[in-house]
Amino acid sequence: MGSILVRSLKMRRSAATAFALLALLAGCRAPEQRAAKFAGMYEAAMANNDPYTARLAMQRAVSYKDDNPDYWQSLAGVELALGNYSGAYNAYLRAQELDHSNPTVLQALADLAVIGGHTEEARRYAKQVLLLQPSDPAPQTTLGFVALRDRDYGAALKRAETVLGQRPDDSNATILKARALAGEEKPQEALSLLRDYVAGHPRDAAVLDALGDISGRFGDLKGQKDAQQHELAMRPKDKALRVNYARTLYRLGDRAGGHDLTYAMVRNGEHGGLLIDILALWLRYEPRARSLAEVRELAADAPVADRMRYAYFLMLAGAPSEAESLIAPLVTLPVTAANASPLALLAQTRAAQGRNAEALTMLDAVLSFDQGNVVALRARTDLYLRTGRGRQAVFDAQRLVASKPRAVDDRIRLARAYRLAGQPQLAENTYRAAIQDIGGADPLLFADLRGFLVQAGRGDELADLQQQFVEQKRVARSQW
To answer: Sorted alphabetically, which PROSITE patterns does this protein's record hold (predicted)?
Structure first.
């Protein structure tokens, strides 16, 4: 939305300098004077493209003068620039408490509420803006995005058209209209609208992102690639965008392009915490021999945290003994908060080698220390499933689903555990509930349920299941 599509500022002054200046300013006597000094420092920092120092300064300003709505609004703005939506929302909320009739603050709260999925709050704040400024198009856009979340595509389209009638070049209203058209299963109209906009506004990252997203949802991988490539030219250091672009390249069959991009990120230590995502791409798309060789090379000099991720890759790639040799020198009993998950991973590597008793002893120890450890619960559930212990598997899988209700693989674990325990009705209920609760037409979930029906001699139900799968995919495409 227009009021919150803030481009993050890049320049950063050293923390040492910032704290030194803050300490110097703290010598003023009256709280109001101190707050004003820090507010002045905030203005200077923002003028110098230094949002980190600006945030520190404004945090100090509000600590001395808590009842100034302008200070809170300024703090919210810099939190927004830094991508801290939660901090921005809280700061705007405080500003609104102090000044109930500021339309800028109300609009920001409305937009942030939409981003967070709080549609009723968004609707309430947007309507307050309309009462104060009936001709303002921004709340119309916000209410359109609320309608979009409610899958009321006709209402969303109407809101978008209202705004575009006043401001034909409004990027957020253009995105709203495109998403509403896509929700109505009119992807070509949506994509044409966005392409036309990009032709006239080639550096609008938000519209490019929408173009790539809608292209991908409707299977236009070439369109998705072109949009992502355009975005990367503007934001070459955006690591998440680079990984998403690599994923698109792999899906298009450009394995060399996907590999070169991701391997450079890993080799240069520029994966930005996305190593597990990159390794998942390698596991799925790269030849096993090459990826194993590269992981062995990379793991040798990797930090401890990354070695754990490489070990997990090695285990999944069918080299559990190598994974064990990578982890074993780094962790040992007794269990601590720091080593619980690595020990669970070590146990997995041993279970994958058929050393079930050793693995179970270690997993039991981890879960005695931390009964909610997800890595250990998954490893022990899988061990129980593999060794035919359905009743024990049910207990662990139930805890997993309670902890991670939207994890498809955990729902499948629970269903398989029920099947193994001789409770087929509970297994089917688990599959059906997962489809209802999670949605998204997950192919693995539907494939497992399909296998269950075939095994139960209910092949006549497969056509209905396939139709449900198709419908779920359609619904998933329309969820924004």
So the answer is: PROKAR_LIPOPROTEIN (PS51257)
